[in-house]
Amino acid sequence: MKNFIIGLLFLGILIPFHDNPSWAKEDPIEKLKKAAKADPKDYAPHFGLGQAYHIMGIYDKAVKEYKKAIELEPLFAAAFNGLGASYGELGQFDKAVGVYLEATRLGPNYAEAQYGLGWSYFQLGNYDKALQPLKIATKVEPKMVAAHFTLGKVWAKLDNHQLAIDEYRKTLSITPIFPDAYFQLGRSYTSLNMYNEAVDAFHDTLRLSPNFFEAYIGIGKAYMNADRNDEAIAPLRNAISINPLSLEAYNNLGLAYANMGEHEKALAPYLEMARIDFRNPVAHYKAGVAYTKTNKKLEAIKKFEEAIRLNENFPEAHFNIAWLYQELGEAEKALDFYSRTIKYDPDNLDAFFNSAEIHESFQRYKEAAEAFLQATRINPEHVEAHARLGRNYAKLNLPEKALAEFNIALQINPKLAQTYYELGNTYGELNRHKEGLQPLRKAIQLKPGFMKALYLLGRFDTLLENYRDAITPLKKVNNIEPGFNETDFLLGKSLLKTNQYHDALPFLQNAVKNDPKHAEAQYFLGLSLIDAGRNEEAIEPLKMAVESQPDFSEAFNHLGETYQRLGNYPDAIKAFDSAIQIDPGFTIAFNGLGTIYTFQKEYVKAVRSFKNALRTNPEFENGLLNLGMVYEILGRFPEAIKTYQKLLELNPRNSDAMFSLGWVLMDEKRYLEAAPVFKRAIHLNPAANTYYGLGMVYNEMGRNEDALLQFRKALQMDGNHAGAHEKIALLEKEFETKTMIKPRTRRKATSGNSDIILVP
Predict the structure, then answer these.
(1) Predicted local confidence at residue 233, as pLDDT
(2) Is residue 714 a contact partner of residue 685, using CB atoms and an 8 Å limit?
C-alpha cells in the first residue's frame, strides 16, 4: 500500500481517501497525520498533507508539510514543486523561485515546475529570466495552457509583441474558450499598430465574456490609435454601462471627443471622472483642461484650484491658472501663479517667459530680465528669449550684456568644442552645474570623443542627481581611459541610484581599492551589497565609511539597518545611537531603534524611541503607526486609539491606521465606533482583511446577517481567506440550528504569524 501511495504522490495526485470504502469513515487529513506519526521517516504523508492544505488554501501549513517531506526525501522534486506553488500563493515569489530552481534541477523536464519557475519570475518582474523555464514547460507539455499564456505575457512585457501573439494563439488553439487570452492578444495587436486585428480579438473576448468591460476599452483605444475616434465612442460607452466607475473608460471617452474637436462633449466624461475619483487631483485637472477647451475660463480655474487643494505640488495646474488669469487680464494674479509654478517646477521655461512678458509690459525691466535670463538658462537655444533678454538689458543700460545676448541669439561661432567645454567648466567652478550641462553637451556634440567634457558632464549630472543621464558619458570615459579621475566612483554611484546595483558593484569596488578612505565610495558599496541581498558583506564597507568619516550619520543608520536585518540587535542599537548622536533629529534612526526594541519586547524603550522619532518629525506617519501598534501590544488601547486618530488627522487616507483603529476600538468593545471606521478603511483600501474586520464587528454586535455579508465580501477579494471561511461556516451553522455560538478568540487576520507588523 505504501508503494502505491508514493507512486500517486510522485504523479502529483492527492489521494482521495474518501472514495475508498475502507477509509470513508476517517477524515483524510487525520489519516495522513496518523500515517506520518506512525512512520516519522515516511515523507509521503507529509507530501499528501502539503497538497491537502494547499488545496484548502492553508498555505502556511502546506509550506510546513512540504518542507518536512523535503527534509525526509531531499530528492523529491514534486515536494519542491508543491512548496513553490504554496510560496507563490503567499506572494513570496523570491522563495518560490528558489524551490522551483531545485525542483527543475532534480527534474529538468518537470513541466509544472518549469512553469512555476517562469510564473514566479514573471511576478517578480524578471521577464528575461522567465523566458527559459516557460519555453521548457511548453516544449515538454505542448498543451499546457497556462505556460503558453504566461509566456505570451512575458513577451509582451519585453515589448516583443509578435512572439506574444504567437503564444496567445497557441493558447487559444488549445483552449478556445479563454477570454483573457483574446484580451491580451488584442493588447499586443494594438501595440503593433494592427488595430483591425486588435478589435477582432477584443470582440472575441466579449463573445466569451460579454461583461469584460476592459475589452470595450481596448476596442476604443484601438480605434483612437487608428485615428478613428468616432468609432471609439460606442465601445467606450459600453464599457461605462458595464462598469460606471471605470476611470479609464471616462478618460478615453473624453480624449476621443477632444481628438474630434468636440470639446463640449468631452467635458461630461471628464466631469464624471472627477466626480467619481474626487480625491484625485489629476481627475480635476483634466476637467479643468476640458473647461479651458470650451473657453469656460472661470470654471476651469475652479477645477485647477481643486486639483491644487488636493496636491499643492502640481505645477501644471498652477501654470494653467496663471495662463487663464493672463488671458483674463488679471496680471498680478497670473504672476502669483507663475511664481507657484516655478516653485514646484524650477525648469518651467514657459512660466519664466510669460512672467517676463508681464513684467516687461509694466516696464519692470529688471524683473523681466531676470525671468528671461532664467528662460535662457533652461533652454540656451531659445532665440526669442535671448533677444528679449537683450532688449531688457538695453533698457537697464547694460549694453555689453545686451550685445552678448544678441550675439547668442544670432548663434555666432557655434562650432568650437573647446569653448563650450571651458564655459561648462567655468560654470562648475561657480557651482552652477546645471548651467554647465548644455555647453558641455554642445562640446561633445561637436567632438564626440572629448573625454574631459564627457567626464565633466557625467560629474555634473551626478551632482545634480541626474543619475540616469550621467551613466552614458561616464561609461564612454571608462571605455576611453579606465580609472580616469573619479570615474569609477561616479559611475558606480549613478548605477546604484538607478537600481542597477549588480552593475555598480565592480566600479565601487575599484573606487575603494584605489582609495580605501573614500567614505562615500565605501558607503555606496555597502548600499549596493545591501540591494544585492548580501547584507553580511555590506557591513565592512559601511564600517569603513564611518571610520573614514565619523560624522557620517546616514552610513551609521544604514549600518544599523543592516545589523538589524542580520539579527545583530546589540550592534544595530549602537549604530543607530551613533547616527542619533551625530544628528539628534534623525527620525528614521529613532524609528529603527523602536523597531528593534519592539522585537526584543523592550516595549518601554520602544515607546520612548518612537516618541523621539515623532519629536523630531511630528508628522512622521510610520512612527505614529508603530507607536500605536506597541500600545496595542501593551494593552494600552486608549493611547493606541489616540495615536491612530492623530495619524488620521495628518493623513485621513492612511488605510493602515484606519484599519488598526478599527481593531483597537473593537478590542475596547466600542463596536458602534469601530463599524464606521472599518467602513472608511474599506473605502480607502477594499481589502479582504478590512471586510473581515467589519464582519467581526457586526458579529460582536449580533448583526450576524450583516457580518455574513462582509465575510463573503472578504472571500470575493481573497477566496483563500481562512478566517472568513471559518466565520461563514460558523454563522451558517448558527442560522441552521437557530443558536448563537460565539468564537472563543478574535484576532487581526494577517498573512504572517504576528499581529504586529512594524513599518520601517
Answers:
(1) 96
(2) no
